Every structure is written in structure tokens, then in C-alpha cells.
Amino acid sequence: MAAFGTGLGLYDLLKNKHNIFNKVVTYRQLISGFFFAMGALGYLVSAQPAMLGLATSFVLSQVSIVGATVSGIVVMHVHKTRKEWLATMVGLLLIVLAAAVTAFLK
């Protein structure tokens, strides 16, 4: 997936003369991508039977979405309406609550 995105960026650079690597927003998005990558790596490591198991590790990887969303909002200085903030926070809260319920079911 990363190779596909890099390929699209290089295609855009060569074809349209848009250098996305000179823009600050490109590097800011790396920060929230880092949180998602850590969640994916944690999923791969902990999904092994000797570790947490598949069900628990999947839930933990989904909780990484919370970190990626919050870091993206903070780093990118996102401005939202009250309704958008409410929907975002309710969604993040539901993710955390679902993770907690799943953890206690085991």
C-alpha cells in the first residue's frame, strides 16, 4: 500500500510537475500515519497465539484509529463545526467503549 501511494506521488511529480514533497502538509500527515502504523505493527505482533490472540489484537489495532484521528486534528489544525466535533468525538468514544467491552468479554 505504501508503494502504491509512493508510486502515485512520483507519477504526479513527473506528469503534472506538482512536487508534493515540498509541501509541509505532506510531512504533517506522516505523524498521524505513524500512529496508524504502530497500531498495525502491534496487531501483527500480538496476533500470534503465544501473545494476546487474534480477537484482542484486532481490537487494539482499531483503537490506534483514535490516536491517529486526534494527532491528525491537532497537527493539521483542523477547524470543524460543532456538529462535526460532536460526531467525531462520539465515534472515537464508541471505538474506545467497544474495545473495553471486548476486553472484558474475554
Question: What percent of the residues sit in helical stretches (DSSP H or I)?
Answer: over 70%
Low-confidence stretches: none
The N- and C-terminal alpha carbons lie at a distance of 33 Å
Number of domains: 1
Shape: flat
- Rg from alpha-carbon coordinates: 17 Å
Number of helices: 4
Keywords: Membrane, Sugar transport, Transmembrane, Transmembrane helix, Transport
GO cellular component, one term: plasma membrane
GO molecular function: carbohydrate transmembrane transporter activity
Main location: membrane
Q: Summary?
A:
This protein has 106 residues and is mostly helical.
Provide structural commentary.
The longest helix is centred in the last third of the chain and has 24 residues, at 82-105. The chain is flat and about 55 Å long. It has four helices and no strands. Helix 3 packs antiparallel against helix 4. It has helices at 2-16, 24-46, 54-76, 82-105. With 106 residues, it is mainly α. Its main location: membrane. It is found in: Cell membrane. It is a multi-pass membrane protein. Keywords: Membrane, Sugar transport, Transmembrane, Transmembrane helix, Transport.
